[in-house]
């Protein structure tokens, strides 16, 4: 496996594609707006393709890392899409966080065309993408997973086969549910500390390494304290993921998830979706002030 088509050169996709090139793969890329990929193209010398189908044609593997389920639908099933362009035997890996049911649809459509399909969403944000330390959760055929392991190893550190098609996405839903609770807990703790008149820096120092500590606290609480809303992971993408997770369960069965989803939705409605997920603290500060 040598040639890779990579579709979606965004906040995380850029670093993931660059790490594939560093690992020795020949990478061609496609994104809807070429200008967004220009710096990457100039830095790496990767080939540009004019459509998703062109990016998939003649490749050993195709990786997609796009924004929303509708974007996944477009690049796989749309005009000049991947499924019609990829040659039988090609490995297709969707690393977008999307609906598990869509992952199954792609796998079924791909299998009918002689393609090998995996859903392999990731966790770790832009830092994990840059450092090739992403957690990768894969669903599909186990033999296909093993064949693609060298690709995953170029981008991630924790690489786990989860089960059949859709299992990777279901695992990512569990991941996002856990994140929602941890992130909300950090926000509530900081909001409480501020309201009590505590020094937030001292509060962070006191609790971040104890039983309350988490990745969310260690990495995002300092940003909340500093007022740094720059995205490592967009709030709007967290909202997308949480809505997908909510759709998998019965209403009321995941109350913490549903509350955090509601809070993210309110912030997104205020036009704050392009901020980082740490901007969730704004919701708690606003409601504490009321």
TrEMBL record:
Domain 3-hydroxyisobutyrate dehydrogenase-like NAD-binding: 166-284
Keyword terms: NAD, Oxidoreductase
Keyword Ligase: no
Catalytic residues (positions): 172
Pfam families: NAD_binding_11, NAD_binding_2
MF terms (GO), sorted A to Z: NAD binding; NADP binding; oxidoreductase activity
Origin: domain of life: Bacteria
Family, as annotated: Belongs to the HIBADH-related family.
Name this polypeptide is given: NAD(P)-dependent oxidoreductase
Lineage, broadest ranks: Bacteria, Bacillati, Bacillota, Clostridia, Eubacteriales
